[in-house]
């Protein structure tokens, strides 16, 4: 969670990203969260289709003519399809899909027209699978296993996990740390640039972790 501009209230970063009326003043630091007051009353009155609660602001399915409402946090908990798309104008668009429309397959061409050479089909299937794995990265983490490894409470591990998940979602599902040199299948950066990139990343992570530590102290 991140504070609002006044610093008196806190809001989920995921909600700030997917609720269209809300903004984040500094995208790099992901804070403060602004324009919460711009959320219309109609959004506050929606009942989440997942938790069935009429509290907080809901978003609605991005599929045309589908108005199914749900909380952003509930969507992540139920592994709904939540996409970040970079359009041709370098504008980031956030798409969300209800339980019915998540991971739905688009209508394809007829078998005769859609048929491709086996090697092309195999490569396309592999690329699609890799993209799916990248989008569902957070489902590969078992919080219960981490509790024994790091020696922290499940509640604190969940707090850190949610922060990491949102940070990576904001980075278009890409890993927060740059790839190591020599990693197979990836383009290599010059060593000097890689070191500087890592140093900048570590500085940002350290600042963010200090905030997480301060917030986590409230749970201990």
UniProtKB/TrEMBL annotation:
GO terms for molecular function: zinc ion binding. One of its GO terms (cellular component) is histone acetyltransferase complex. Residues 102-122 are annotated as: Disordered. GO terms for biological process: regulation of transcription by RNA polymerase II. Residues 1-102 form the PHD-type domain. The keyword Zinc-finger applies. Keywords: Metal-binding, Zinc, Zinc-finger. InterPro entries: EPHD (IPR034732), Histone_Mod_Regulator (IPR050701), Znf_PHD (IPR001965), Znf_RING/FYVE/PHD (IPR013083). This is Protein Jade-3-like.
């Amino acid at each position: 969670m991140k504070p609002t501009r006044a610093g008196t209230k806190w809001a989920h970063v995921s909600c700030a990203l997917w609720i269209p009326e809300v903004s984040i003043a500094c995208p790099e630091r992901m804070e403060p969260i602004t324009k919460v007051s711009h959320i219309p009353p109609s959004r506050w009155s929606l009942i989440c289709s997942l938790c069935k609660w009429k509290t907080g602001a809901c978003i609605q399915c991005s599929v045309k003519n589908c108005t199914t409402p749900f909380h952003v946090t509930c969507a992540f908990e139920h592994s709904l399809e939540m996409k970040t798309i970079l359009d041709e104008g370098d504008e980031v668009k956030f798409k969300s899909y209800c339980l019915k429309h998540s991971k739905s397959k688009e209508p394809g061409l007829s078998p005769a027209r859609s048929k491709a050479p086996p090697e092309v089909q195999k490569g396309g299937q592999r690329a699609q699978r890799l993209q799916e794995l990248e989008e569902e990265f957070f489902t590969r983490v078992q919080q219960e296993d981490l509790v024994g490894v790091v020696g922290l409470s499940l509640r604190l591990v969940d707090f850190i996990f949610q922060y990491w998940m949102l940070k990576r979602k904001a980075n278009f599902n890409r890993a927060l740390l740059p790839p190591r040199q020599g990693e197979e299948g990836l383009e290599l950066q010059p060593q000097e640039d890689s070191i500087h990139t890592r140093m900048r990343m570590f500085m940002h992570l350290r600042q963010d972790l200090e905030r997480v530590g301060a917030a986590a102290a409230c749970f201990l």
